[in-house]
Every structure is written in C-alpha cells, then in structure tokens.
Predict the 3D structure of the following.
Amino acid sequence: MRLEGPARGVLGRIRVPSDKSVSHRAVILGALARGKTRIRKWLVSGDTLATLDIMRSLGTKVEREGEDLIVEGRDFEFDEPGNVLDAKNSGTTARILMGVLSTQRFFSVITGDGSLRKRPMGRVTEPLRRMGAKLDGREGGTRLPVAVRGGRLRGVDHFNEKSSAQVKSALLIAGLRAEGRTSVTEPFRSRDHTERMLRAFGVEVEEARTEKGFRVSVEGGGTLRGTEVLCPADPSSASFFVALCLLSGGELTLEEVLVNPTRDGFFRKVKEMGAEVRYENLREVSGEPVADVYVRYSGRLRGVGVTPEEVPGLIDEIPVLAVLMALAEGTSEVKGAGELRFKESDRIRAVVENLRSMGAKVEEFEDGFVVEGVEKLRGSLIRTYSDHRIAMAFTVAGLVAEGETVIDDPDCVRVSYPGFFEDLRKVIL
Ligand code: S3P
C-alpha cells in the first residue's frame, strides 16, 4: 500500500471497533457459563474469530441475533474436538484456551500460525502442569503445538513474573475448577478484564496488595451465570487516530472507548507530552469504565519517558507512541519493555528499524529504546513483519511524513481492525 504524505489533518467523530481483549473473554466466559450470554458489539476480526471457531469446535453453540452474539454456555462441559485447534495469530486465544482445556479430561492439541508458534508458552504450560494438567509440546512444552489432557486440578499460588494478563486469565479460569484456592501475583498490574468479567458472571474474585505485588485469587468450584456483555471500543485501535490527530492537526472524538486504568496508559502518556485529551461522558458499561475520548491538536509534543511499571498499561500502544516520540521535542525513552520482543513480531526491532528508515534518531536496547525527536520524518518502505500494530503505527507515520511511504503487508491489520484504512479515510481532511 502506498501513502502520500503529509496529511492535512483530521476532523470528526468515530467509533473504532470493539476491544479485542474484552471480545475474546466474552465468548470464552460465555461458553464456560451456565445459561445464555448475549454479547453486544462483539469485535469481528482475525483474532477473535479464531477464539469463536475454537469454542465452536469444543461444542459451544453460538448464534447471531441481529448485531448480537448469543452463546449457549456449557458450564465447563465441552466435547473433545475432532481436530487440532488453530489459534492462528492470537496469543490471547492460545494461552487462555490452555487454561480452559486444562479443566477438561479429553485430549486436545492447540497450534497457531508461524508467528505464534515462535512465541513463548512455558509461562502458561508450567503453572498449569503444577495445577495437575498434562501438557506437552515442542521444546519441552514451551512452543506450540501443545497437547493438553486436563483433569483433576489443585489450586496454585503463582508469581506471574512478566505481568501477563493472558497467563493470569488462564490460571484464574483453571482455578475455578481446581481444588482450593488459586492466586496469581504480578509485580505490575496487568489488564484486569477477566477479573471484572468474572464478577459480572457472578464469580467472586479477591484482590490484595502484597509485598511482592498485586494478587488476585479465586476459589475452586465457582459457577459462572450467563449474562449480557457490551464490548466497548478498543483503546489500542483508538490510539492510532489520537496519534494522527496530534501529528497532523484537527480534532476528533472517539466514541465509547474503554478507559480502564489498566489500559489507558497511552492517553495518559500523551497528556504528559502536552496533548489535549479529555474523557467526556465517563460511564460504566458491563463493569468497565467507558468514555468518549476528545483529542485536539495542540502543537509539538514534548519528549517523555516510560518506566517499567507503566509498560503493562500501554504495552500494545508502544509502536505508535514511538512514532509520537520520534517527532516530539527532545529525548524520549522506553525502559522495561523486553516483552515487546515476544509479541506478534519483535516490536522493539521493528520499531527501531522502521523509524530509522524514516530518518528518526533511535538507539535500541534489549528492553526498550531511546529516541531523539526530529522535525520531520521522510517516507520509506515499511516492513511490518505481518504485525498489525506495526502496520497501523507506521501508516500514521507515513501519513505525516514527507513523500511516499509503502506498507509491505497492509492486510495484516485484519487481526484486530479489518476496516482500519476505510475508517482513516472517513476522518482525514
Ligand atoms: C492481552 C494481554 C497482553 C497484550 C495482548 C492482549 C490480553 O499480553 O499485549 O495484546 O488480552 O490478555 P500479555 O498477557 O502477554 O502481557
């Protein structure tokens, strides 16, 4: 795809597609529940369809009713799948499903595409084995495909060193069918959608601060009761529009955006950089805080730092934040973000390489990077590594750069945001 910059600004209101994390969880928890769950505004995308297909392969009936999805809950009683389960590009699907499958006595195998088969799985297979499930896979069970035979589980007290919400969610779900209590402690708080949604399904989740970090616990034997879930707009998808507005001019309102404090780190960070960003009409929807996010061009941004504690709250927004940093005044730095190397691509490498090709001054570290802001970026050939967030972040960069930018694999955006390019056209002046 070819982009001709620089764009003359943006104007309007837009409701970006629904949150990916919430949409995955709504289908999974709906299937685990007793009774029906109605899901409103479910995200239709590559990743979430991978989850839906797998839940169907396990015998879950899911139907469309107008715009809604109706999931017929199985109350933790699934069917043995007739074939290998394919999580495609979705880490959330693979990891959370391993927790679900560990509660089932049957045999199943979960795999994914070339990118997902390279990503680390030991962080979830290891604690699930300690709970009593049998998991095996490539490289000692640390890489997909992974075979699972679940059964009688016992609760664990796990230290979630990487503060991964996927690991936490898998263990909490398995913990609901384990004997005793399951606790997950993380050094920095990761997104808490599973905890909030479990409560909406009638399950008690206990939270506590300890000297090691933040702990969440569930008791074994809990039942989920089917409910209604409305999926709000995805703050990660919204961040590309906020960035484009802050770099090209104009004003935008992003409607019905999830502003959960474990997810809104990007909006808070750009405010720290001097941007005008406001939450309007703040309300609660299905247990999650939601707002219309107003953003207005407010001149050149200031360089800023991101500390390790702040990383989980904006992990998926770091590629687009890096584009803002590259054009900000002064030096910016991201530290403690080594997890970015294990996402859909090595996002530190991909960000540094693409920013450099556009004329930015960036230094790469194992767990982050330092950027010296420049006045202008110049168009170049962007290598996405088939990573949706790299494609969208550098589309924004290409739209504000001088000259032509070519995105090598624009189609990879379908993983989280199939209509991204059409939506951009709606707001660009
Ligand atoms: C997600 C958790 C995060 C995030 C991913 C979605 C989730 O990953 O980067 O895009 O839905 O739980 P980790 O759990 O590996 O930190």
Summary: The mean pLDDT is 98.
